[in-house]
Amino acid sequence: MILINLLPHREAARKRQKEAFFVSLGLAAAVGGLLAGLGYLWIDGQIASQQARNSVLQSEIGRLDKQIKDIAGLQTEITALKARQQAVEDLQADRNLPVHLLNELVRQLPEGVYLMSLRQDNKGIAIQGVAQSNERVSELLRNLGNNSPWLGRPELVEIVASNLTLSPKEQRRVSNFTIRASLDRAQKTDPGKTGARP
Predict the structure, then answer these.
(1) How large a percentage of the chain has pLDDT more than 90?
(2) Residue 191: predicted pLDDT
(3) Looking at the DSSP assignment, which residues form a beta bridge with residue 172?
(4) What would the 3-class secondary structure string for 145-179 be?
(5) Of 26, 53, 94, 108, which cross-links 143 as Cys (Cβ 3.0–4.6 Å)?
Protein backbone atom coordinates (compact mmCIF):
# COMPACT_ATOMS: atom_id res chain seq x y z
CA MET A 1 0.00 0.00 0.00
CA ILE A 2 1.24 3.48 -0.86
CA LEU A 3 1.22 6.09 1.83
CA ILE A 4 0.73 9.67 0.78
CA ASN A 5 1.49 12.42 3.17
CA LEU A 6 -1.11 15.06 2.78
CA LEU A 7 0.09 17.17 5.67
CA PRO A 8 1.70 20.50 4.78
CA HIS A 9 5.29 19.42 5.49
CA ARG A 10 6.79 22.50 3.88
CA GLU A 11 4.88 24.82 6.19
CA ALA A 12 5.85 22.63 9.15
CA ALA A 13 9.52 22.81 8.06
CA ARG A 14 9.18 26.58 7.62
CA LYS A 15 7.56 26.79 11.03
CA ARG A 16 10.35 24.73 12.58
CA GLN A 17 12.93 26.96 10.85
CA LYS A 18 11.15 30.06 12.10
CA GLU A 19 11.03 28.67 15.60
CA ALA A 20 14.73 27.72 15.43
CA PHE A 21 15.52 31.20 14.07
CA PHE A 22 13.56 32.91 16.85
CA VAL A 23 15.14 30.63 19.47
CA SER A 24 18.63 31.37 18.11
CA LEU A 25 17.70 35.08 17.88
CA GLY A 26 16.50 35.01 21.49
CA LEU A 27 19.63 33.16 22.56
CA ALA A 28 21.80 35.68 20.67
CA ALA A 29 19.87 38.57 22.26
CA ALA A 30 20.23 36.95 25.69
CA VAL A 31 23.98 36.38 25.15
CA GLY A 32 24.33 39.95 23.80
CA GLY A 33 22.39 41.33 26.76
CA LEU A 34 24.47 39.22 29.12
CA LEU A 35 27.69 40.45 27.49
CA ALA A 36 26.42 44.06 27.53
CA GLY A 37 25.44 43.69 31.18
CA LEU A 38 28.81 42.20 32.04
CA GLY A 39 30.55 45.00 30.12
CA TYR A 40 28.42 47.62 31.87
CA LEU A 41 29.18 46.09 35.27
CA TRP A 42 32.93 45.96 34.48
CA ILE A 43 32.96 49.58 33.25
CA ASP A 44 30.89 50.64 36.26
CA GLY A 45 33.35 48.86 38.57
CA GLN A 46 36.27 50.59 36.83
CA ILE A 47 34.54 53.98 37.19
CA ALA A 48 33.79 53.30 40.86
CA SER A 49 37.38 52.27 41.58
CA GLN A 50 38.68 55.35 39.71
CA GLN A 51 36.29 57.56 41.67
CA ALA A 52 37.51 55.96 44.90
CA ARG A 53 41.12 56.66 43.85
CA ASN A 54 40.13 60.24 42.91
CA SER A 55 38.49 60.77 46.29
CA VAL A 56 41.62 59.45 48.04
CA LEU A 57 43.75 61.77 45.91
CA GLN A 58 41.42 64.72 46.66
CA SER A 59 41.61 64.05 50.40
CA GLU A 60 45.42 63.80 50.18
CA ILE A 61 45.54 67.03 48.16
CA GLY A 62 43.38 68.74 50.79
CA ARG A 63 45.66 67.45 53.56
CA LEU A 64 48.75 68.63 51.67
CA ASP A 65 47.14 72.04 51.01
CA LYS A 66 46.55 72.37 54.74
CA GLN A 67 50.18 71.44 55.41
CA ILE A 68 51.33 73.99 52.80
CA LYS A 69 49.26 76.68 54.53
CA ASP A 70 50.75 75.64 57.87
CA ILE A 71 54.24 75.79 56.37
CA ALA A 72 53.55 79.22 54.88
CA GLY A 73 52.29 80.36 58.29
CA LEU A 74 55.42 78.95 59.90
CA GLN A 75 57.61 80.73 57.35
CA THR A 76 55.80 83.99 58.11
CA GLU A 77 56.34 83.41 61.83
CA ILE A 78 60.01 82.57 61.22
CA THR A 79 60.44 85.77 59.19
CA ALA A 80 58.76 87.80 61.93
CA LEU A 81 60.94 86.14 64.59
CA LYS A 82 64.07 86.84 62.54
CA ALA A 83 63.02 90.48 62.17
CA ARG A 84 62.45 90.72 65.92
CA GLN A 85 65.77 89.02 66.61
CA GLN A 86 67.52 91.45 64.24
CA ALA A 87 65.80 94.39 65.96
CA VAL A 88 66.96 93.12 69.37
CA GLU A 89 70.49 92.60 68.05
CA ASP A 90 70.49 96.11 66.55
CA LEU A 91 69.27 97.58 69.83
CA GLN A 92 71.92 95.62 71.70
CA ALA A 93 74.62 96.81 69.30
CA ASP A 94 73.36 100.41 69.35
CA ARG A 95 73.00 100.55 73.11
CA ASN A 96 76.50 101.93 73.63
CA LEU A 97 76.65 103.84 70.35
CA PRO A 98 76.07 107.33 71.86
CA VAL A 99 78.91 106.77 74.32
CA HIS A 100 81.24 105.63 71.53
CA LEU A 101 80.10 108.54 69.35
CA LEU A 102 80.83 111.18 71.99
CA ASN A 103 84.14 109.54 72.88
CA GLU A 104 85.09 109.43 69.21
CA LEU A 105 84.18 113.08 68.68
CA VAL A 106 86.37 114.08 71.63
CA ARG A 107 89.27 112.10 70.17
CA GLN A 108 88.90 113.45 66.64
CA LEU A 109 88.16 117.09 67.52
CA PRO A 110 91.17 119.31 66.76
CA GLU A 111 92.12 122.29 68.92
CA GLY A 112 90.26 125.46 68.11
CA VAL A 113 87.02 123.66 67.12
CA TYR A 114 83.97 123.84 69.40
CA LEU A 115 80.74 121.91 68.91
CA MET A 116 77.45 123.73 69.36
CA SER A 117 74.98 120.93 68.59
CA LEU A 118 74.95 117.27 67.65
CA ARG A 119 71.84 115.61 66.21
CA GLN A 120 71.41 111.92 65.30
CA ASP A 121 68.94 110.96 62.59
CA ASN A 122 68.76 107.18 62.14
CA LYS A 123 72.27 106.22 60.96
CA GLY A 124 73.50 109.74 60.30
CA ILE A 125 74.54 112.66 62.46
CA ALA A 126 74.58 116.39 61.91
CA ILE A 127 77.29 118.37 63.68
CA GLN A 128 77.16 122.14 64.06
CA GLY A 129 80.03 124.06 65.55
CA VAL A 130 82.44 126.97 65.52
CA ALA A 131 86.08 126.85 64.42
CA GLN A 132 88.86 129.40 64.67
CA SER A 133 89.61 128.94 60.96
CA ASN A 134 88.63 127.01 57.86
CA GLU A 135 91.78 124.89 58.23
CA ARG A 136 90.51 123.56 61.55
CA VAL A 137 87.25 122.48 59.88
CA SER A 138 89.27 120.75 57.14
CA GLU A 139 91.32 118.97 59.79
CA LEU A 140 88.13 117.80 61.53
CA LEU A 141 86.80 116.47 58.22
CA ARG A 142 90.06 114.60 57.57
CA ASN A 143 90.06 113.11 61.07
CA LEU A 144 86.46 111.95 60.77
CA GLY A 145 87.01 110.50 57.29
CA ASN A 146 90.34 108.75 57.85
CA ASN A 147 90.84 108.00 61.54
CA SER A 148 87.39 107.23 62.92
CA PRO A 149 86.01 103.67 63.01
CA TRP A 150 82.62 104.97 64.25
CA LEU A 151 82.04 107.82 61.79
CA GLY A 152 82.27 107.65 58.03
CA ARG A 153 81.69 109.64 54.86
CA PRO A 154 81.79 113.12 56.41
CA GLU A 155 80.68 115.96 54.18
CA LEU A 156 80.71 119.67 54.76
CA VAL A 157 77.22 121.07 54.37
CA GLU A 158 77.92 124.71 55.11
CA ILE A 159 80.63 126.99 56.39
CA VAL A 160 79.94 130.65 57.17
CA ALA A 161 82.42 133.27 58.35
CA SER A 162 81.19 135.45 61.21
CA ASN A 163 82.47 137.69 63.99
CA LEU A 164 82.46 136.59 67.62
CA THR A 165 82.36 139.32 70.28
CA LEU A 166 84.51 138.37 73.26
CA SER A 167 84.39 141.75 74.98
CA PRO A 168 83.23 145.27 74.03
CA LYS A 169 86.63 146.00 72.50
CA GLU A 170 87.62 142.54 71.25
CA GLN A 171 86.08 140.69 68.32
CA ARG A 172 87.33 137.55 66.66
CA ARG A 173 86.69 136.17 63.18
CA VAL A 174 85.34 132.54 63.35
CA SER A 175 83.83 129.97 60.99
CA ASN A 176 80.41 128.46 61.74
CA PHE A 177 80.12 125.03 60.09
CA THR A 178 77.68 122.19 59.59
CA ILE A 179 78.94 118.67 58.88
CA ARG A 180 77.01 115.49 58.10
CA ALA A 181 78.48 112.03 58.69
CA SER A 182 77.21 108.46 58.83
CA LEU A 183 77.38 106.26 61.89
CA ASP A 184 79.22 102.97 61.45
CA ARG A 185 79.53 100.11 63.87
CA ALA A 186 83.18 99.43 64.58
CA GLN A 187 82.76 95.63 64.55
CA LYS A 188 85.82 94.98 62.44
CA THR A 189 88.13 96.90 64.75
CA ASP A 190 89.71 95.74 67.95
CA PRO A 191 87.88 97.22 70.99
CA GLY A 192 91.21 98.27 72.48
CA LYS A 193 92.05 100.24 69.34
CA THR A 194 88.67 101.91 68.89
CA GLY A 195 89.11 105.58 68.30
CA ALA A 196 92.88 105.52 68.76
CA ARG A 197 94.76 108.14 66.82
CA PRO A 198 97.45 106.91 64.40
Answers:
(1) 31
(2) 44
(3) 164
(4) HHCCCCEEEEEEEEEEEEEEECCCCCEEEEEEEEE
(5) 108
